[in-house]
Each structure stands twice: as C-alpha cells, then as structure tokens.
C-alpha cells in the first residue's frame, strides 16, 4: 500500500511531461501538415531509377496542351 504514495506522483509527473511535449510540438507546427509528407513520396523525381524499356513513351500530343 505504501508503493501507491510513490507511484501516483511518478504518474502525475509523466503525464505532465507528456502534455508539455504535446503542446510544445503543436506550438512548433509539427501537426500543421500531415498529408503532404505522405503524398510527397508519390511525386519524387525518380526517373533515373526506371529502366529504359519500362519508361512510358512521350507523345507530342500530351506535351502540347491546347
């Protein structure tokens, strides 16, 4: 039963540190844009990694939009 006198203050300290870290990260803008990093990988420039025979052929019709 005496251990509870130690565990409750430790739990309160841990919760307060977690809340401080959360609010600090919100103020620093860590949660401003959650979707762009996930979509960025789809649009990275990796043409040098695609083999020549697997690259799509470029048509002049697609390059010149009306």
TrEMBL record:
InterPro entries: Cyt_oxidase_maturation_cbb3
Keywords assigned: Membrane, Transmembrane, Transmembrane helix
Region: Disordered, residue numbers: 47-66
Transmembrane segments: 6-26
Bias type Basic and acidic residues, positions: 52-66
One Pfam family recorded for the sequence: FixS
Superkingdom of source: Bacteria
PANTHER family listed in its UniProt record: FIXS PROTEIN
Name of the protein this chain belongs to: Cytochrome oxidase maturation protein, cbb3-type
Natural source organism: Marinobacterium sediminicola
């Amino acid at each position: 039963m005496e251990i509870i006198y130690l565990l409750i203050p430790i739990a309160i300290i841990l919760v307060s540190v977690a809340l401080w870290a959360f609010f600090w990260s919100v103020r620093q803008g860590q949660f401003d844009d959650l979707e762009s990093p996930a979509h960025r990988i789809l649009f990275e420039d990796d043409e040098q990694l695609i083999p020549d025979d697997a690259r799509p052929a470029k048509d002049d019709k697609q390059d010149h939009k009306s």
